[in-house]
Amino acid sequence: MQHNSPNERIKSLNLLAHLAPERRRNKPTVSTSAPLTVGQNSGQKSKMVQEPKKIGTCILVDVRSDDTPSEEVYDTPALGSPRAVAPTSTSPLQLQEEIGVGSLVEVATDVDQHYYGVVRWIGIVDDTATAGVELEQNVSGLGDGSKGGTRLFTCAPGRALFVPLPLCRRDARFRDTPPPDRADLHETNDFEQPDCPVVPGVVPPLSSLGELAGKNRGIQGHHNSCYLDATLFAMFTFTSVFDALLYRPPEAEDSPHYSEVQRVLREEVVNPLRRHGYVRADRVMKLRTLLERLSDVPGLTSEEKDPEEFLNGLVAQILRAEPFLKLSSGQEAYCYQLFVEKDEHVSLPTVQQLLEQSFATSGVKLSEVPAAFIIQMPRFGKQYKLYQRVLPSPLLDVTDLIEGLPRQCTVCGSLARWECGECSRGAALEAGALCAACLRLTHAARPNHQATPLTVCEEFENILESCPIPRVYMELFAVLCIETSHYVAFVKAGVGHDAPWCFFDSMADRKGERNGYNIPEIVCIESLGAWLSEEGGRAPAAAPAARQLPAHARRLLADGYMCFYRSPDVAMYR
């Protein structure tokens, strides 16, 4: 490792991370201001630092490591000298409290060029409070987060910008008021966005669409966040099936940062979404930054990701939620990936058909009825799809997928005692459920079929012999779709067969070009319920070309990536 020159000192500005006075002389030359990750010592005492000296306009400090090649990315004016923000009464220490690691900031230069990015590191360089910013766009001449041979943070080459901290200010695109230097211009309203206050306490999910539809509604997308925006909107806007994630008390095995991640998710994302119908991008970036630091999923703040990667980082690793699915094989999971062989005779399969085929192939069952069932479609990557179109089943019959659940004989309707996998091959799983009498009749001509006994609870055995066998259904409430690496969501606005559906896109429109911001939008789709019905499903099957379908129906059927099902009755006890 290369050592810093004697006249260059870099130390953390994070007060909580400072060592006790007697340990300061043994402190490493470089320490980041990011929160401690799991397993690190969080018992260090904080020590106040001296107020940084005032910095005038100056040339940007050297930001490229010695081994980073120069690369021209696009035609752009040369970096100018950063110019200070409008004078305010804010002290540098107050500024440090307002702008921290994970903040969305902008840096203005003396050539009227604005640079936008995320603060990745804050520290002292040559007695100057300095911010390391990962820019949204590559700029020729910038590095990858190293300075003087020491790595302070990691980003793509050409995006690491180090500037004095007082020269950074909150990104005007995500502020409640226009930038100070535009207050007297006619385009002031171009940078105004809805307010997004923190909402503490308990806020129930919305029960109807109401006035939620429109522009600047939902979760604002920013910097490849669509995978997260669509997933959060589907999970929390109109349903409480995942609300245990918001309120579970911390346990001894949890991360030291569990409460903070949970608070940001609840009070800065979910509650504002439910109460005000809008979440600004900087609130979501705070959650993304925490997840990137604390989980083993890299790139959550800047790269394209898939919903299952986000769920793994948030739900499995940080929040340590109980897995939604428990299989008879002893395995547990949060999502279920469909693995099936393509049937060339089927042009428009339903999720019900594919799910039963997948379970029959794997030979496993669910150990219990799940409160939430997240099913990934049979597609691999963003391009390859096993079927060009898949019809989401509005009601998912899971009766034959649950181990130990009473089942009905497919022949006579009485209580089934046996199950034959060969009888159900190529048909619905219920075709393999047989009572003892029907088993003898059907297998008389099928000597190669092997049936296995079904387990029936003795307490209900006599009752079920004389009563109709109940079926267990789960309700579809959201579908995530992807097209050309962009995720959107179709979400049911309420509970019940007649509840309307809406379409959500966190980046539906944009204000400005390179330095603009995205505008999220929610659209009411009144006809979606009809398209999902059995009668409506016949129309796309008969349509010779996808372009003949309505735009939203075409997108729902052709771009489906993940279906969300719920069992409200089971969720009450979880």
UniProtKB/TrEMBL annotation:
Q: Report the SMART domains cross-referenced here.
A: CAP_GLY
Q: Where is the USP domain?
A: 217-568
Catalytic reactions on record: Thiol-dependent hydrolysis of ester, thioester, amide, peptide and isopeptide bonds formed by the C-terminal Gly of ubiquitin (a 76-residue protein attached to proteins as an intracellular targeting signal)
A single Gene Ontology MF term assigned here is: hydrolase activity
Q: Which InterPro entries match?
A: CAP-Gly_dom_sf, CAP-Gly_domain, Papain-like_cys_pep_sf, Peptidase_C19_UCH, USP
Residues folding into a coiled coil are none
UniProtKB keywords: Cytoplasm, Hydrolase, Metal-binding, Phosphoprotein, Protease, Thiol protease, Ubl conjugation pathway, Zinc
Where in or outside the cell?
Answer: Cytoplasm, Cytoskeleton, Microtubule organizing center, Centrosome; Cytoplasm, Perinuclear region
Mention any Pfam family matching this sequence. Answer: CAP_GLY
Stretches the record annotates as Disordered: 22-47, 68-88, 175-197
Biased composition regions of type Basic and acidic residues, renumbered to the chain = 175-189
Enzyme Commission (EC) number: 3.4.19.12
Bias (Polar residues) occurs at 28-47
What the entry lists under SUPFAM superfamilies is as follows: Cap-Gly domain, Cysteine proteinases
Q: Which domain of life is it from?
A: Eukaryota
Q: Which Gene3D superfamilies match?
A: CAP Gly-rich-like domain, Cysteine proteinases
Q: Which top-level enzyme class is recorded in the Swiss-Prot or TrEMBL entry?
A: hydrolase
- Protein family membership: Belongs to the peptidase C19 family.
According to UniProt, the name of this protein is ubiquitinyl hydrolase 1
Source species of the chain: Galleria mellonella (Greater wax moth)
